[in-house]
Write a structure and sequence with these properties.
Low-confidence stretches: none
Mean pLDDT: 83
Distance between the termini: 37 Å
Strand content: under 5%
Structural class: mainly alpha
């Protein structure tokens, strides 16, 4: 009979449920930030690629999508660390969720960005956000590929449909045709995918969290 008791962790000695409650907010904060970032990049890229099929932009988007699928997250994470921390020196050191000199906020929600904002500590908020940028970009590159490819394919299918050709034939402007008629219908299959991707990202961010401590 299932009791919900997962036992004690071999690493910390605490109950596993307590460890999950303490550590899950960090994973959720990273995953949600990466998903929002991926959506904000994938949708415009997919739409622009569909509007100019076969162009240099289209080939560039497909190249980025291919790299996002082919390159493992721990490899892209290490490359980002090497370029932006080791070579350029503009990223903070990848040693956790906070800079070693920053004070930890009161544990209100477990999400550092939210807790810092609730307490009005914007210096700490900037420190936490800076530490979150590279791991979130790493996760976003992993998620960007399927979202952009799906958006491009859906947009291409809608742009070739009868109602879009009819809208153009009656003299409607290109922005209205794209935003009101094409995009609204093209996004229907796309908006259902983040839920599936979110669960995949929760599993994939284990390696990302390891790389960025």
């Amino acid at each position: 009979v299932g009791t919900g008791n997962l036992g004690r962790s071999l690493t910390t000695g605490q109950p596993v449920l307590r460890d999950l409650a303490e550590r899950l907010p960090a994973s959720l904060e990273l995953t949600l930030t990466a998903l929002i970032l991926a959506l904000s990049l994938a949708l415009p890229l997919g739409i622009l690629a569909a509007l100019r099929p076969g162009s240099l932009l289209d080939h560039g988007v497909r190249l980025v999508c291919s790299l996002g699928v082919c390159v493992p997250t721990f490899v892209s994470g290490l490359l980002l660390i090497y370029v932006f921390y080791v070579v350029l020196g503009i990223a903070p050191d990848p040693t956790g969720r906070l800079d070693i000199f920053a004070a930890t906020p009161p544990d209100i929600t477990g999400f550092l960005l939210i807790d810092f904002a609730l307490t009005g500590d914007w210096e700490g908020w900037r420190s936490a956000a800076g530490q979150l940028v590279l791991p979130a970009v790493t996760m976003a590159l992993f998620t960007l590929a399927p979202l952009a490819r799906m958006t491009r394919a859906s947009m291409l299918a809608v742009l070739g449909s009868d109602f879009v050709r009819t809208a153009r034939s009656i003299g409607l402007g290109q922005p209205r045709v794209i935003l009101v008629y094409a995009l609204r219908n093209a996004l229907l299959p796309v908006i259902t995918s983040p839920g599936i991707l979110f669960s995949t990202m929760l599993g994939a961010n284990v390696l990302v969290e390891k790389v960025f401590s």
